[in-house]
Specification:
Elements lengths: L1 H12 L16 E8 L6 H20 L7 E8 L5 H15 L3 E4 L2 H14 L2 E4 L14 E3 L4 H12 L6 E7 L2 H16 L3 E8 L7 H10 L3 E5 L4 H11 L6 E3 L4 H7 L7 E5 L8 H14 L5 H23 L6 H10 L2 E3 L5 E4 L5 E2 L2 E7 L2 E8 L4
Parallel strand pairs: 1-2, 1-3, 3-4, 4-5, 6-7, 6-8, 8-9, 9-10
Antiparallel strand pairs: 10-14, 11-12, 12-13, 14-15
Helix pairs in contact: 2-11, 3-4, 5-6, 8-9, 11-12
Length: 384
């Protein structure tokens, strides 16, 4: 009888045991949002810009009391500029040391490498920088608040089709990003009535493009397309003009870093990209831009805006999941909250809606470089 009494007493102490109400899960004192950025290496320009946007959003939310009293913190790990192996090591540190359930990811190669880990560990990931089409559908936990390269290339070529000339030369990154853009660009340009006369590949991190520029010049194209990202965009523009080429050039990115490298050679370059600009009809955008400049001494570009916005998306997922009750601070609950209502306020203006493929539906702009600065031309819609 004594043994039975002891067993019964022990059962009453178990969670959910008869005679004792189960205690609701306690709120975590801090919710760590992980980040995989290029904090060192040749692409560290991106990492610092992205982290600045992320940190500003976290500080803003915490200054207002956090997410219903739960403070946020940034846990940033370095993937060193796009290596898959470095990305996996960084993701494992985020999980083992910081116990993250949500991660802001960047660059295509490390995001592709860590996707299986996100699936296995049920971690929500939001990409605001990587552009490879291979990212679409890679993981059910991966979402994007960045237009991917396939959409950007379509915008650039749609514009190029309205220019004089049909012969297109392409200079691409020698990686999956460049390869996948070319796979889309070739048939699209032919469908638009043109022909491809040259395709040249450049390694990410290249310091010279003389061979590629010479071959493109020899092909005598009417238009040149650059399927690459900073700093190679600036270098390509400079070398093409140095080789005497005056043809129109289109692409999918142009940053302040590219402007410094290309100088006057960037004049007239046309590119498609996400567009952030503060506007009178969007007070949030104006406040973000003003605070960013006060804090960092420079205007925010769309990378800063995307990762600033990404923090607010995750914070809203936490808020929505918490309203459902239970253990809401895990990646599965956060993902469910996003899918249940895929509409979120966007710092770009209006709402951003995540499509069934995980890509946020946002407006895309065409720009022309004038006097080293991008000039907005028009909004264009990417179509299949």
């Amino acid at each position: 009888m004594k043994k039975l009494a002891v067993v019964l007493a022990a059962l009453l102490l178990l969670p959910g045991a008869p005679g004792r109400a189960a205690e609701p899960p306690k709120d975590p004192p801090v919710f760590a949002i992980g980040a995989l950025f290029a904090m060192t290496g040749q692409a560290s320009f991106y990492g610092h810009t992205m982290s600045q946007g992320m940190k500003q959003a976290i500080d803003e939310i915490n200054a207002k009391g956090g997410v219903e009293g739960i403070k946020l913190e940034a846990a940033i790990e370095d993937h060193k500029g796009g290596g898959g192996q470095d990305g996996v090591a960084a993701m494992n540190r985020l999980i083992a040391i910081h116990h993250v359930q949500a991660v802001l990811t960047s660059f295509s190669a490390p995001t592709i490498a860590v996707a299986p880990i996100a699936d296995q560990q049920h971690i929500l990931m939001l990409n605001g920088g990587g552009v490879s089409p291979q990212l679409v559908g890679l993981s059910k936990y991966l979402f994007h608040n960045r237009s991917l390269s396939s959409d950007l290339a379509r915008i650039a070529l749609t514009y190029a089709a309205g220019l004089e000339g049909k012969k297109l030369a392409q200079i691409q990154w020698q990686n999956d990003v460049g390869d996948n853009i070319v796979k889309i660009a070739d048939p699209l340009w032919q469908k638009l009535g043109g022909s491809v006369v040259a395709i040249e590949k450049v390694a990410q991190g290249a310091t010279t493009m003389d061979t590629q520029a010479a071959k493109v010049r020899a092909a005598n194209p009417d238009i040149v397309a650059l399927w690459m990202f900073t700093p190679e965009v600036g270098l390509a523009l400079k070398r093409l003009r140095d080789f005497g080429m005056k043809q129109p050039v289109v692409g999918v990115e142009f940053t302040e870093n590219d402007a410094k490298i290309a100088g006057a050679a960037a004049e007239g370059y046309h590119f498609a990209n996400d567009y952030f600009a503060p506007s009178d009809d969007n007070p949030w955008s104006k406040q973000f831009a003003a605070d960013y400049k006060k804090r960092y001494g420079e205007d925010p570009d769309f990378y800063a805006a995307n990762y600033y916005e990404g923090v607010y998306v995750i914070a809203e997922c936490i808020r929505r999941a918490r309203a459902e009750g239970g253990d809401y601070w895990n990646g599965e609950a956060l993902r469910a909250a996003l899918l249940a209502n895929p509409k979120f306020a966007s710092v770009y203006g209006g709402q951003m809606t995540f499509q069934a493929n995980g890509v946020g539906l946002k407006r895309t702009a065409l720009f022309t470089v004038q006097d080293g600065k991008r000039k907005f031309e028009t909004f264009l819609e990417a179509k299949e």
